[in-house]
Write a structure and sequence with these properties.
The protein has 137 residues and is mainly alpha-helical. Helix content is 84%, strand content 4%.
Length: 137
Amino acid sequence: MLKEFKKFISKGNVVDLAVGVIIGGAFGKIVSSLVNDILMPIIGAIIGGIDFSNLSVKIGNAKIAYGMFIQNIIDFLIIAFCVFIFVKIVNKLSNLTKKEEEKEEAIAETEVSILKEIRDELKKNNKKSTKTTVKKK
């Protein structure tokens, strides 16, 4: 069982996933800071000096902090947009790499087909020269 676990952990996908989760967590903190410390104060100033983090409604003893909910929605939308842009960039780079590989493969295939044609012509010419040599004797 321990060997299976080591094999599982050493696979590239698990390590990539772990790195992604760690970087995603750090990225989330950066975006949260962007939303909480920069964007929300600007949005609050634009709409009349409202501090969203303090918006709440009190119902009995319960405090419903809908301002924090609004901030979290904006936080989520910014993170989702950033991930969308990142994925688009990665896909574009991946497509460029694929196109270059396909181009190289096409060139290699063309070279191979030209070499095959040359080989076939040489065989054909070799057979003709052998036949003419045989006839002369």
